[in-house]
Amino acid sequence: MGYDLKIVGGFIVDGTGSQGYAGDIGIRDGKVVAMGHAPASARTTIDARGQVVAPGIVDIHTHYDAQLLWDRKLSISPWHGVTTVVMGNCGFGIAPTRKEHRGLILRTLENVEGMSVKALEAGLGDEWGFETFPEYLDVVEKKGTLINVAVLLGHTPLRLFTLGPESTERAARPDEIKRMKGIMREGLEAGALGYATSKSPTHVGYEGKPVPSRLAEFSEIREIASALGEAGKGVIQATVGKELSFDEFAELNRVSGRHVSWTALLGGGGVLNVGSAAEQLARSHELQSAGYAVFPQVTCRPLNFEFRFDQPFLFQSMPVFTPVNKADRAEKLRLYADNSFRAGFRDAMRGPMLSAWDKAVIAHCPDRPEFGERLVREVAAELGCNSIDLALDLSIQSDLQTRFRLPVANADEDEVATLLRDSCTVLGLSDAGAHASQLCDACFSTHLLGRWVREKRVLTLEEAVRMLTSRPAEVFDIKDRGRLAVGMPADVLVFDAGTVGASSLRRVYDLPAGEDRLISDASGISAVVVNGTLIRNNGVDVLGAEGRLPGRLLRHGAAA
Questions:
Q1: Tell me, what DSSP letter sits at residue 243?
Q2: Angstrom distance (rounded) from CA 52 to CA 534
């Protein structure tokens, strides 16, 4: 019997970390049926001579929950070889959501995840087709996607669904916690990959309010997590913050018996005071040595944000920005011109914040294009003014349209290399689908292969492929992805190890309502295959957005 698709002459790296070898792969009915030697003929043949043949990339940290409802291709992840994504991270999502709370959930996503409400409203429309989490999964499955999707049930929509607007103001009562736990059980039975929550101080929602999950006491988080133990399935993703750190992660693992992956173990050099990466690594090893399945997520890219002062995400947790968070555009302009606000802002910029601000770049200035891609402090020195005053002046003059780029974390590559090499970590934090106008790390896979394998030789090819495929699949209990093996679904990536990489970021205006986002193009990606179907060939989409697409909803971490 022949093959539907055959990939010939490539260097096969199977995702397990084992040494690669030359050979062919035969694919039939969406699965790998031959590896190494594939003698039968095929309807379609891909010539992979001189190239690497690997499993499709598994991205465990995305925010495509809304985007997939208008963009079934989940761009730009497939461009960079990603064939499986996990959504609902950091406790965010759009289900469950009552009709009367849709505006609140969209405003929360706008603020904390940098998603334009205008784009969200235009993309989602008036009729979402769901309120409950099981209904959402059904909608996703019916719509279809280009690549595979697994979904975490987020604590923020869960809390808003149960407590309403009070979810941003108070702890839950015992009866409300019981209802939330019941909804979590319902979600797990329907196919949720697990439970996601956050206590991060940077997660600020609409009107400067903390996102609902931050109001949860740990007893609430623990009780919801216990639903996973009772069900015997699911994983927990948690974003670190006050009263949600190493001891709490260990307790969540103990009470649930399920893997806990936390976001994020970052290096320094930016506005986030992330603490000592070495100490966090040591503490992570202590937990794992004691038998706790707690896995810190790391990222291979420097974390840089582009922002405007109409949405000052990076500064919103500062007390001086409290009135800004509640202000309309006119009031923001007034506050930014106020000398007392400026004095308070300058005073708040101390320590790591000031060091990071010294690296701030003027990314785009409509009124003074000659300032573009220059350091704020250098331009301020030339003009004889304070750099914060300059940034606010340029923002006011452009009606808050001036963009700045600021390092947030991971600025020290030596420190990043240590995190990548460590056996206790897992690669994540692409944030694909979120912060669209502020950053683009959906290209993490090609960046890892180009920068850390080919250029810096910090990782071997086999190590890097494992980090991108089977390792995240194992940690997140995604059962049938991340490896090339006979009998496995045929998610395959073919790339040129000599040219693979990610381009510099560029800004496009292709979101609904013409809203903007940053994207990165991939180089060296020859072919991407999802469930045996070729979806990209030589950097071009093979399939259109209409009709049947090959991606699968991975209920409980596996295709039905």
A1: T
A2: 16
pLDDT at 49: 98
Lookup: tokens for 70: 């208008």
DSSP letter string, 190-217: HT--EEEEE--TT-B-GGGPBPGGGG--
Residues in the chain, total: 560
Q: In Å, what is the CA distance from 429 to each residue of 162, 239, 525?
A: 28, 11, 21
Q: Facing residues of 407 across strands?
A: 304
Q: Which residues pair with 151 in a beta bridge?
A: 87
Domain range annotation of the chain: 56-303+409-479, 306-408
**What CATH architecture does domain 56-303+409-479 belong to?**
Alpha-Beta Barrel (3.20)
Q: In whole angstroms, give the CA distance from residue 529 to residue 148.
A: 11
Strand 21-28 relative to strand 3-12, pairing: antiparallel
Distances (CA, A) of 473 to 141, 274, 498: 20, 26, 26
Cα 126 to Cα 244: distance, rounded to the nearest angstrom: 36
**What's the one-letter identity of residue 542?**
V
**Nearest-5° Cα angle at 56, 87 to 487:** 110
Which pLDDT belongs to residue 114? Answer: 82
- How many whole angstroms separate alpha carbon 81 and alpha carbon 70? 21
Per-residue pLDDT, 273? 62
Smallest Cα–Cα separation from 468: which of 175, 28, 81?
A: 81
Radius of gyration of the chain (CA): 23
* pLDDT value, residue 208: 82
Q: What is the pLDDT of residue 202?
A: 86
| DSSP per-residue letters across 143-158 | H--SSEEEEEEEHHHH
Contact 91, 156 (CB under 8 A): yes
Which pair of tokens denotes residue 319?
């007390």
Q: Minimal CA–CA distance to 200: which of 298, 113, 312? A: 113
Phi, psi of 398 (to 5 degrees): -100, 15
Give the E-state strand segments of 424-541 in sequence order.
Answer: 426-427, 492-495, 501-502, 506-508, 517-519, 522-523, 525-530, 533-537, 540-541
244 φ, ψ (degrees, to nearest 5): -150, 80
Secondary structure of residue 85 in the 3-state scheme: strand
User: Which token pair is 499?
Assistant: 């040219």
Distances (CA, A) of 209 to 1, 59, 271, 502, 503: 61, 30, 21, 36, 36
Neighbours of 129 (CB within 10 A): 13
The predicted-structure confidence for 188-229, as pLDDT tens digits, reads as follows: 999 999 999 999 988 988 888 999 999 999 999 999 999 999
Q: Could you tell me if 186 and 142 are in contact, meaning their C-beta atoms sit under 8 angstroms apart?
A: no
Residue numbers of the chain with a pLDDT score lower than 50: none
For 376, phi then psi, to 5°, come to -60, -45
